[in-house]
Amino acid sequence: MNRRKLLGGLLAGASVPALAACGGGITSLKGDGGSGGSGGGSSAGGLVIGTANFTENQLLGYLYAEALRGAGVKASVRPNLGSREIVIPALKQGDIDLLPEYQGNLLLHFDDKAAQTEAGDLQNALTVALPNGLEALPYAAAEDKDVFCVTRGTARKYGLRSFTDLAARNGELVFGGPAEDKKRVVGLVGLKDRYGVTFKGFKALDASGPLVKGALKKGDVDVANLFSTDPDIEANNWVVLADPKALIPAQHIVPVIRAAKADAKVRKALARLGGALTTRELARLNKLVSNDKKDPDEVAADWAKDHGLAKR
Fold it and tell me: What is the DSSP string of 14-80?
């Protein structure tokens, strides 16, 4: 199947569900419920790009900004805003205009019963599931999936090769990941419902960041939620557990935008970026930021220039 198949310019028709109280139930970065944004029907006033609170998503935000500026669109980045439970309401309220997202987890955010796993099917479902006024633009070649990892020693000790094997160790292991994993389908909820897995404990840490990776190394957690493009998985010889029942859907990078800002110039710029950004390239860029300690905005600027996307 053509992995680039999508529904393009369709607008979504579903309303956003009630969100868990986060920060006292505030659903706007302004802290007062939001103003709904400036609108304007085009990108003439520029776009504000928001990102979640992990390295790769910040990097993607800067890549979006470089691609837009290269196309003559003003763009600024508000990095590290928080989890999906924060940034999606901010986008809906108009505090930000654009987000780098991940197909499968984004769909599950709006529909926790969604069964789609293939990229094209996920894209089609997103056009229905997104709230009015938001749109999923064409997805990138690059994909970054959630993966659940164990150390090589833990895999040998408990005979772990897949999620199915975890059920044989119910009540013995500790799971580590971002706090949201406790209530997400791609997390403890899905592992219990689809595989019958329960854990001895859960440690709320970060999203494929130094806290969860440090805990995995030290043995403070036995199973860690990391991202498939994280260079530390290969560097530490960690074992990625197989997912035979496809709990984790495709996770191609997808720009989610306020439809009022999605004019032809914006669409073309982000489509060019999406076509050029492969999974291998994204992993390489992650390594430059996470391991080589380079600034994500500088890494993004260099990459955009090298690929003819930056402002000339």
Answer: BPPPPPPP-STT--STTSSS-------SSSTT-EEEEEESSHHHHHHHHHHHHHHHHTT--EEEEEE
- The answer to whether residues 208 and 105 touch, using CB atoms and an 8 Å cutoff, is no
61-98 pLDDT per residue, tens: 999 999 999 999 999 999 999 999 999 999 999 999 99
Q: For 16-36, what is each residue's pLDDT tens digit?
A: 222 222 222 223 344 333 333
Residue-level pLDDT at 39: 38
- Please answer whether residues 78 and 239 qualify as being in contact, where contact means their C-beta atoms are separated by less than 8 angstroms: no
Question: Domains of the chain (ranges plus CATH)?
Answer: 47-143+251-306 (3.40.190.10), 146-240 (3.40.190.120)
Structure confidence at residue 72 (pLDDT):
96
Taking the C-alpha atoms of residue 157 and residue 172, their distance in angstroms, rounded to an integer, is 12
Rounded to an integer, what distance in angstroms lies between the CA atom of residue 262 and that of residue 273?
Answer: 15
The 10 Å CB-count burial string (b at 16+, else e) for 297-310 is bebbbebbeebebb
| pLDDT tens sequence across 193-247 | 999 999 999 999 999 999 999 999 999 999 999 999 999 999 999 999 999 999 9
Question: CA torsion, points 182, 191, 208, 145, in degrees to nearest 10?
Answer: -130
Cβ neighbours for 31, distance < 8 A, ≥ 6 positions apart: none
Contacts of 298 (CB under 8 A, 6+ apart): none
| pTM of the predicted protein model | 0.78
Contacts of 106 (CB under 8 A, 6+ apart): 84, 126, 136, 254, 256
